[in-house]
Design a protein that fits this description.
This is Alpha-1,4 glucan phosphorylase. One of its GO terms (cellular component) is cytoplasm. The modification N6-(pyridoxal phosphate)lysine is found at residue 618. There is one protein chain. The protein has 775 residues and is α/β, with parallel strands linked by helices. It is 46% helix and 15% strand. The strands form five sheets. Strands 1, 2, 5, 6, 9, 10, 11, 12, 16 and 17 form a ten-stranded mixed beta sheet that branches. It has a six-stranded parallel beta sheet with strand order 20-19-18-21-22-23, sandwiched between helices. The chain has a three-stranded antiparallel beta sheet with strand order 13-15-14. Strand 7 (148-154) and strand 8 (157-163) form a beta hairpin. Helix 21 crosses helix 30 (712-731). The chain is globular. Bound molecules: ligand 26V. Ligand 26V binds next to helix 5.
Length: 775
C-alpha cells in the first residue's frame, strides 16, 4: 500500500506546477516533528474507509498496520511541530514551500518510566528503513569546515580562498509533503545526512597502520547528523551543535543556489524568486553563508550581496528565555568556520559604524546591538540585523520582543517587526485525530471546514441544540474510552472513563509549571481527607512530556508526579475521586490520541514565558476547555471565545516582568500567610511521601530558598479559585457541552492555514492560489 501511495505521490509530483515563475520559499529548521504519514495521507485522500475494507478482505487490520509506522522524533516540541504544520499548510495553500533540515539518525530519545523516574532510550526510527524518504545522492553538496582562508588582491578586488578544510558530504533525503485536496502541489522536505566525501577509509592513515585515525575520521563526520540535541532548555555551547547548524545551512543554500541558477534569472533578482525563512536562531548562519556564496563564488560586491541577503531572509523568534538565546565563543566559531567568521565580523563592524553615526550619544544602544561582545557571537543579534522581517509567535510575545528583548533594535528597525500568531494543522489534529467529531461537524455544517477552518464558526447555531450537544458528549466519551484502552494496554493502569480528564501534556519545564498543577492536586487530596464531600465528581489528572536528560529539576518533577500518583492510588479514601497518570513517551502520535479525549486543557505557564504554545490550540479544536494564564496564545484564545468560555487566572505578564525587574516578590510571605498552601509545600519534604526522603528538596528549595522564580506560590490561590469555577461548570452537563461547542466553533483562526496565509502575504510576498480565493 505504501508503494501504491508513493506511486501516486510521484505521479502527482510530476504534475506539480513548479513553474519557473513561482517564488520558492525555503523553511530552514533544525527540527521537523512530522508525525506518522500513512494514515494522514489516507485521510487527506479520503480513502481511509475504502482501504480499511479492502485490507479487511485480506485479513489485515488497518490499525495494526498503521502502528507499524515509525513516528520520526526529529524535534523537541512546539518549534519542530510548528515547522511540520507549516509544511502542510504551505502545500495546501499552493505555495512552493520546502523544508530544509537534518536527517538525524537518532531522534528525540524514547522515554521510559522506571520506578517513577524518566529513563532515556535511543530512538532508532530508521531501523526498519523509512518508506517515505528518497535518497538523492546526485544532489549532494560538499560542506567545508576548519582550514585557513587566504586573501589575495586580484584586479583591485579581494579574493578569498578556503584551504586545508575538512570536507563533509551532505546527502539529501527527500520526503514528499502532500496536503489535502492538492494533487498538483507536492512540496518537499529535504533532510541532510552527513557522510565522508569518499566512501573509502582514509587510506593514508590506514596504510600508516593508524586504523583508529582512519575510523575516527569517518565517525567524526557521521557524528554531525547522528543525533538530535535533546534539550530545549539550555544552549550547550558544544562544537558539534554548531557543526550541525552550519552543515544543514550550507547544504541547503548550496542546493538552493544550484536550482536557482538553472532558472536563468539574474542573480540580482534572487530575493524576488527565493524566500529563506529561519526558524529561531539555529539556522541563522544562512545570513553569512549566503553572503559568502554571493561574494566568494559569484563575485558580487559587499553592498549588493548584503541587499540580496537581507531581502531574502526572514526570522522567527520562539522564546524570550535568556538561557535559550544562542551565543558562540569566538574562538570555537573562528576555528570551525574561518571564512564565515570573517563575514560575521565585517557585518558587525559595518553595523556598529552605522549605529555609531545614527545614535551618537547612545552608548548603551550601540553596545546592546553589537553581534560580537564579551568574546561571544550573539546569534539573535545577527538574525535581526541580517533579515528583512522579525516576527514573534503570538501578540503578547511580539509585544515583549518589541518592548524588551529587542527594544534597541525596535528603535532602529521598527519596520521589520511583526506578529504572526501560531496555528496548528487542523486536518491532522482534528480531521484525522478525531474522526467521530469530524463526522459530526461535517454532518452539521458540511465539509467546507476542512479547507477553511473558519467555517467551524457555523457550528454556533447548535449551541442550544440539546440533541447535537448530546452527540458531542458521546464523541468525547468515546474518545476517552479509546485513551483508557491505550493506557491499559501500554502502561497497565485502569483509568475511569467516566471521570473528568484534566490534561497537561508538554515538555517538562519550570516555567510551564507542572508543579502548580501538582500542588493543586495535593491540595484537593488534603481537602478530601478532611471532608470527603469537598470535591464533586471524580477526576483523572493526565500528565505527559519529556524532560531534557540533563535537566535535573524537570526530572524530579516527573518523579514527583509519579510518587503522588502512587500515594493517591494507595489511599482508599481518595482514590475514587482522584487519579493521576503519567503518559510515557509523549509524542505526536500520542498527542493525536490525547487531545480528543481531554475535558480540560492546562495552559498554566508563568505569564510572559510561553511564547505561544500550540497544544492549547489542539485541545481547543477538540472541544477541551482551557484553564490558563494570560500567556502566549492563551490571550488570543480568550479574545476568540470571550472570558465566559475560558478559565483565566494568575499574574499578568506586565506584573511578572515588573517583579523581575524591580523585585518586591517574597515567596516566603505567601508560605507563612497561606495555611493550606504551606501544608502542600511542606509535604514535599516532611515525610508525607514515605519513600522520598530528600528527593523533592530541590523543588522545596526552588520555592522558598530561591524565591520561586516562576511565581508558583503567587498564582496558587487564583488557580484554585478558577478551578473551582470550572468544576461548577462541569457539573452542569448541558452548560459544559455548550462551552465545548463554542470553543470548537471559535478555533478556526488557530489553523496554521491562517498563519501561513499571513506569512505568505506579509513576509514572503508570495501568491497563494488557494487562500487568495477566501478573502
Ligand atoms: C525554552 C526554554 C525555557 C526554559 C529555559 C531555556 C529554554 C530554552 C529553549 C526553549 C524553547 C526553544 C524554542 C521553542 O521551542 N519555542 C517554542 O516554540 C513554539 C512554537 O512557536 C511555541 O509555541 C512555544 O511557546 C515555544 O516555547
Amino acid at each position: 500500500m505504501v508503494l501504491l501511495l508513493k506511486e501516486t505521490i510521484s505521479f502527482n509530483r510530476a504534475l506539480t506546477k513548479n513553474s519557473i515563475s513561482t517564488k520558492q520559499v525555503y523553511y530552514f529548521s533544525m527540527e521537523f516533528l512530522i508525525g506518522r504519514l500513512l494514515r494522514y495521507y489516507l485521510v487527506n485522500m479520503e480513502v481511509e474507509e475504502l482501504v480499511r475494507e479492502s485490507l479487511a478482505e485480506l485479513h489485515i487490520n488497518l490499525d495494526d498496520l498503521l502502528e507499524q509506522e515509525a513516528d520520526p522524533g526529529l524535534g523537541n516540541g512546539g518549534l519542530g511541530r510548528l515547522a511540520a504544520c507549516f509544511l502542510d499548510s504551505m502545500a495546501f495553500g499552493g505555495i512552493s514551500g520546502h523544508g530544509n533540515g537534518i536527517r538525524y539518525k537518532y531522534g528525540l530519545f524514547e522515554q521510559k518510566i522506571r520506578n517513577g523516574f524518566q529513563t532515556e532510550l535511543a530512538d532508532n526510527w530508521l531501523k526498519n528503513d523509512y518508506p517515505w524518504e528518497i535518497r538523492r545522492a546526485d544532489k549532494s553538496v560538499v560542506v567545508k569546515f576548519k582550514g585557513n582562508v587566504q586573501t589575495e588582491c586580484a584586479d583591485g578586488k579581494l579574493v578569498f580562498y578556503h584551504e586545508d578544510y575538512e570536507p563533509v558530504l551532505a546527502v539529501p533525503y527527500d520526503i514528499p509533503v502532500m496536503s489535502y485536496d492538492n494533487p498538483s502541489n507536492i512540496n518537499n522536505l529535504r533532510l541532510w545526512s552527513a557522510e565522508p566525501v569518499s566512501n573509502e577509509l582514509d587510506f593514508a592513515s590506514f596504510n600508516r597502520g593508524d586504523f583508529n585515525q582512519a575510523v575516527s575520521l569517518r565517525s567524526g563526520v557521521e557524528a554531525i547528523s547522528y543525533i538530535l540535541y535533546p534539550d530545549d532548555c539550555s544552549r550547550s555551547g558544544k562544537e558539534l551543535r554548531l557543526k550541525q547548524e552550519y552543515f544543514f545551512v550550507a547544504a541547503g543554500l548550496g542546493s538552493i543556489m544550484r536550482s536557482f541558477k538553472k532558472r536563468n534569472f539574474p542573480l540580482g533578482d534572487f530575493s524576488r524568486w527565493v524566500s529563506i525563512h529561519i526558524n529561531d536562531t539555529h539556522p541563522v548562519l544562512c545570513i553569512p553563508e549566503l553572503m559568502r556564496i554571493l561574494i566568494d563564488e559569484e563575485g558580487l560586491g559587499w553592498d549588493q550581496a548584503w541587499n540580496i541577503t537581507v531581502n531574502s531572509i526572514s526570522f522567527t523568534n520562539h522564546t524570550i528565555m535568556p538561557e535559550a538565546l544562542e551565543k558562540w565563543p569566538v574562538n570555537l566559531f573562528k576555528n570551525l568556520l574561518p571564512r564565515i567568521y570573517m563575514i560575521v565580523e565585517e557585518i558587525d563592524r559595518r553595523f556598529k559604524e552605522r549605529t555609531a553615526k545614527q545614535f551618537i550619544d547612545d552608548v548603551q544602544l550601540i553596545q546592546n546591538t553589537q553581534i560580537i561582545a564579551d568574546g561571544h557571537i550573539q546569534m539573535a543579534n545577527l538574525a535581526v540585523i541580517g533579515s528583512s522581517s522579525v516576527n514573534g509567535v503570538a501578540s503578547l510575545h511580539t509585544m515583549i520582543l518589541k518592548q524588551r528583548v529587542f527594544s534597541d533594535y525596535f528603535r532602529i528597525f521598527g519596520y521589520k517587526f511583526n506578529n504572526k500568531t501560531n496555528g496548528v494543522n487542523h486536518r491532522r489534529f482534528l480531521l484525522a485525530a478525531n474522526p467521530l467529531l469530524s463526522a459530526l461537524i461535517t454532518e452539521a455544517i458540511g465539509p467546507g471546514w476542512k479547507k477553511n477552518a473558519e467555517e467551524l464558526e457555523n457550528l454556533l447555531i447548535y449551541r442550544e441544540d440539546a440533541s447535537f450537544l448530546e452527540k458531542l458528549a458521546q464523541v468525547k466519551s468515546h474518545n476517552k474510552t479509546q485513551l483508557v484502552k491505550y493506557v491499559k494496554e501500554n502502561q497497565g493502569s485502569d483509568l475511569d472513563s467516566q471521570s473528568m480528564f484534566d490534561v497537561q501534556v508538554k515538555r517538562i519545564h519550570a516555567y510551564k509549571r507542572q508543579l502548580l498543577n501538582i500542588l493543586k492536586i495535593m491540595h484537593l487530596y488534603n481537602q478530601l481527607l478532611e471532608n470527603p464531600n469537598s470535591l464533586p465528581g471524580s477526576h483523572t489528572f493526565i500528565f505527559g512530556g519529556k524532560a531534557a536528560p540533563g535537566y535535573h529539576y524537570a526530572k524530579t518533577i516527573i518523579k514527583l508526579i509519579n510518587t503522588l500518583a502512587e500515594k493517591i492510588h494507595k489511599e482508599s479514601r481518595v482514590r475514587e475521586k482522584l487519579q493521576i497518570v503519567f503518559l510515557e513517551n509523549f509524542n505526536v502520535s500520542l498527542g493525536e490520541l490525547v487531545y480528543p479525549a481531554a475535558d480540560i486543557s492546562e495552559q498554566i505557564s508563568t505569564a510572559s514565558k510561553e511564547a505561544s504554545g500550540t497544544g492549547n490550540m489542539k485541545f481547543m479544536m477538540n472541544g477541551a476547555i482551557t484553564i490558563g494564564t494570560l500567556d502566549g496564545a492563551n490571550v488570543e484564545i480568550k479574545e476568540a471565545v470571550g472570558e465566559k468560555n475560558i478559565f483565566i487566572f494568575g499574574l499578568a505578564a506586565e506584573e511578572v516582568l515588573r517583579y523581575s525587574s524591580e523585585g518586591g516578590y517574597k515567596s516566603l510571605d505567601l508560605y507563612y500567610s497561606n495555611q493550606s498552601l504551606r501544608l502542600c509545600v511542606d509535604q514535599l519534604v516532611n515525610g508525607f511521601f514515605e519513600t522520598a526522603g530528600e528527593e523533592f528538596r530541590v523543588i522545596f528549595d526552588s520555592l522558598l530558598l530561591y524565591n520561586d522564580d516562576y511565581f508558583v506560590l503567587r498564582d496558587f490561590d487564583t488557580y484554585l479559585e478558577a478551578y473551582k469555577k470550572l468544576q461548577c461548570s462541569y457539573t452542569d452537563k448541558k452548560h459544559w457541552q455548550g462551552l465545548s461547542l463554542f470553543n470548537i466553533a471559535k478555533s478556526g483562526i488557530f489553523s496554521s492555514d491562517r498563519t501561513i496565509r499571513e506569512y505568505a502575504k506579509q513576509i514572503w510576498k508570495v501568491n497563494t492560489r488557494r487562500f487568495d480565493s477566501y478573502i
